[in-house]
Amino acid sequence: MITLVNATDLHQWSERIEAQSFLPRVIRRLILANTHNLQNISKIDFPTDEAVQMGGWDGYLVTSEKSTFVPVGVSVWEFSTNAKVKAKADSDYEKRKADSLNINPSSSTYVFATSRRWGGKKAWAQARKKEGFWADVQVYDADDLETWLESTPNVHTWLSLHLGTLPANIQSLESYGLAWQSATSPTLSKELLLSGREDTCEVVLKQLHGDPSLLELKAEHRDEAVAVVAAIIQNLPDADRDTFFAKSFIVFEQDALQQLASHSKGLILIP
Fold it and tell me: What would the DSSP string read from start to end of 108-157?
């Protein structure tokens, strides 16, 4: 049974240490998945994992394309998984108001996003917006993120898999590829895996950017063929890599394949 994460799952996930460093990746993939033309994004910088400890804005975005959750123009983002949501929102806001890190507040949107539920988000955003320091102030909490995920089925499926709400017979292509490469000592690099496979790379890339269809690949072993596809995506520029990995899944049973296929269009499924 396909069970996707909801706001309650996100709120509970906030208790886990990894949520702090992983939330920026979720938002980044949501932004990329909701952008019809990636050329409209001139800058996207959302540090993840250990990089979240480096200081600076949690997220910085410049885009000419507006969507429901993404402001057009320059937006700066602060993320939180802290249980004391308002206190963290106030602290981050005052810190960035005192030092906007060379960002022009009068032409930029300030976004505070939390994986917790926050009943006071609207009143907080309205009060901060009235100050007139930033061009606009927006707040997203777990319920907003659930809505955003529901409008972005590929990222919704990917995050659900990561948080363990999907069955074990589904695996992300990204995690599979990394595990396959790291099974050797030293680690098998994507460059070595793709060496001499230029024609295959061209065919797969054409498939990824083309209309939905079936592609068959042949290799000495099935696992190797899957690892090659993962390496091809891993070798793409950051935005394209995130976009394709967010919707690429390996499915080990027919029932799961049918459920995923019926749940969402646009997924890349590898049986």
Answer: EEEEEEESS--TTHHHHHHHHHHT-SSSEEEEE-HHHHHHHHHT-HHHHH
Place of tokens 């910088």: 45
Can you tell me the distance from the alpha carbon of 103 to that of 133, in angstroms, rounded to the nearest whole number? 12
pLDDT digit string, tens, across residues 177-220: 989 888 888 888 889 889 999 999 999 999 999 988 899 998 89
Bridge pairing between strands 73-80 and 41-45: unpaired
Q: Is the pLDDT of residue 263 over 90?
A: no
**DSSP 8-state secondary structure symbol assigned to residue 67:** -
3-state helix, strand, coil in the chain (%, to 5): 50, 15, 35
Token pair of 4 as six digits: 């996707």
CA distance 262 to 269: 12
120 CB neighbour count, 10 Å cutoff = 13
CB-neighbour burial class of residue 82 (10 A; exposed 0-12, middle 13-18, buried 19+) = middle
Residue 243's identity, in one-letter code, is T
